[in-house]
Amino acid sequence: MRQPHTSLRAGILAAIRSRNDATDAPALTAQDGKAVIASYNIHKCVGTDKRFDPDRIIDVICEIDADIIALQEADQRFGERAGLLNLDRLRDECHLLPVPITAHSEKGHAWHGNVLFFREGVVQDVHQLRLPGIEPRGALVVDLDLAAGPLRIIAAHFGLLRHSRAQQAAAIVAALDAAEDKPTLLMGDLNEWRLGTRSSLRWLSPRFDPEVATVPSFPSRFPVLALDRVMGSPHNLVGSVEVHNTPTARVASDHLPIKAHVDLNRAMAFFDTMPDTVVAR
Length: 281
Prior knowledge:
Elements: H1 3-21, E1 34-41, H2 54-64, E2 68-72, H3 87-94, E3 97-98, E4 115-118, E5 122-131, E6 137-146, E7 149-157, H4 162-177, E8 184-189, E9 228-233, E10 238-243, H5 247-252, E11 258-263, H6 264-272, H7 276-279
Parallel strand pairs: 1-2, 7-8
Antiparallel strand pairs: 1-11, 2-4, 3-4, 5-6, 6-7, 8-9, 10-11
């Protein structure tokens, strides 16, 4: 009966160590295949002060200055399920455009709360993936053509139950196994702090390594749990991951944003060395 509490304590200690060991990598640009990729659970724009403030969330998104950013909980969950953010302001001030999807309602922006914004490139394909589990969950699988080459983004929000998260991780891997191989990022609020064999994210292995580059992002006032992740396939696609911890971010949502520094050139070099029988599934 005491094992779950032991696992929680171990997860908190690991998250604190990750926070202390995190490196402050310099900001990169999309030039030369390098880019800043971010993930942010915006908690339906309700901050830790209980105030609904979409403009404050956009302020944080502009602070992050990412080339690509995945948001979770970006729509109302019930009722007309309308989008919560001002897309015009995101375009004009943050220079970000939403990946086009079929939302749950005419006023919606997201797929099961997930929306992906990008600054440069061309959207080649979008697949709205339903994820298994007790709660309704989904993921966006987006193929982008960037100046440095192709990049696949999977933006997801996993469930609260560990068994559901394991099913969702397996579904992500199955979807990738059925698709053409290309450099891929999986990012979002994956709702898992455990590491090792008790982690529901172990079902992502070996395509992704869920034990690298974990940084605590929750709760935003004093982050100790690494619920938000960015993982790469191949693993060298992600150079470093850090939490975006500013005064505004600490109050705007119950999660802090995380951002990853990626180098698409390294990933493309990896694929260039692989036999065609492995690259083309």
